[in-house]
Structure formats: structure tokens, C-alpha cells
Design goal:
two-stranded antiparallel sheet; TIM Barrel; alpha/beta; 8-stranded parallel barrel; single chain
Length: 272
Amino acid sequence: MNAPTPNMSDTLARILADKYEEVRERSAAVSLHEMEKRAAAADAPRDFTRALCDAVAEGRVGLIAEIKRASPSGGLIRDPFEPATIAQAYEKAGAACLSVLTDGPWFQGDLGHMVQARAACSLPVLRKDFMVHPWQVFEARAMGADAILLILAALSDDQAQELEDVARSLDMAVLAEVHDRRELDRALGLETRLIGVNNRNLKTLVTDLGTSDELIPLIPADRIPVGESGIRTPDDVRRMCRAGARCLLVGEHLLRQADVEAAARELITALD
């Protein structure tokens, strides 16, 4: 299990170096075989993709509402941080799905946050982390995740295919995240219908909604584009819709509001 060796000056490379070490340590404590057994014993997954499609069919924004305590770019985002309460607020607002950050060193996340959020609502939940090894996919399912994120910038084609195959074998959805045209072309080689376009450059952490303007129109009609990062206002939602994305992943903006339910509802109903 060896980490890639890109220019270590960028943020993503440093996160990945930590992640490979974390997975080495944790998989030594709980074997892959044991994690496979735990995944097989978990309750059936909720249908993440269908939840998004149903929201769009009903005329709403398919919002994947994110739960995270902190981020490298934004620092501490919400304190006190109560995943279950936030999950319930998002569900009341009409969110289609949840995304929960589980990375500890960089986002102050924890798998317990995901477990608490999922138990508090009926929404399908994406484990938001830097997935680099099948062990993590089995762990995600064992802990109740219904979907995983695959960041194409962090993975080779073989890695992405292997992780998707494991997720599909567990009836989990996959959100393939891209940042440029080359990554989009690679993502379209996967089976998943969910293609996330991240407006944040993971090397510089700079956000530019123009990334979605450029890439979303290139996504084939049989796939489901998901706009990610930098989406804060109803106008931003409408901009993503004009580009071709009616599904969005939004976190930091919502979590910085005193009333996360009202903030989420404002985005969900932006197309009314």
C-alpha cells in the first residue's frame, strides 16, 4: 500500500501521505477479512442515487447536504458540532442525501459522526473521505455508509476501478469527483452515473464556479452531474442548473449559518 509521489507541496499530496499511513495502521489492527465480514453483516444500504433522482423528478434541487466540523481551507466551521441535530435539520429542509466528513487529521472528522448522522434520519449517507484502499470501502459499509467518494485526482485508473468494483459489490453508490477535463474523461470510464465536479482546486484550495461552467456541459446525458464547492446563494444554484447540474453538494456555507435548516431550504427551493 504505497502512496503516490506527486509534488508534495500541494495540499492533496500531503493529505494522501497521511491517509496511506492511517490505513496501514488501522488495517493492521482489523484485517481485511474481518472488515469484509462486518460489511456483510451491516443493514442494507439506502439508495443514494435514487434519492437524488427522486428529488429532481419532484422539481427540487437534489441536495447532498454536508456535515463537517472543519476543513483545511475554512478552519473550524461549526462549534458546538452535533451531527445528529444537523442531519435532522437537513432532512426537515428537504435534502435528498447527506455527506459526512470522516477524515480526522485534516477535517476533524470521525466515523462516529457518520454513524450518528445516519441514525438520526432516513437519508442515504455518503462517506466523505480520501478513499485509497478496498479496506476503507468495507469499513464504510460496515459502519453504515450508503455511498463513497472517489477523488480521481487522488487515484490511478486501476485504483478507481478496484474501489468502484468493491462498492458496487456491496450495493453502494459511488460519487466520482473530478476537477478538470482529463479527470472527467477518466471518470467516464467508470460505471457510476454520479459525476461530481468540484469547483475547489485540491492543490491550491482556490474555488472557481467556472470549473462547473466548463465541465458540467461535457457530461453525457446518461450520467448525473453534481456541482460541488463554492455554492452559497440561490443565484449560485441557478448558475449550476444552467450549466446542467440539478444535484449539488453543499456544506461549509450551510454549516456557518445559525439556522442550517432554513439555509438548506433556501438552496433546495432556488429553482421554484
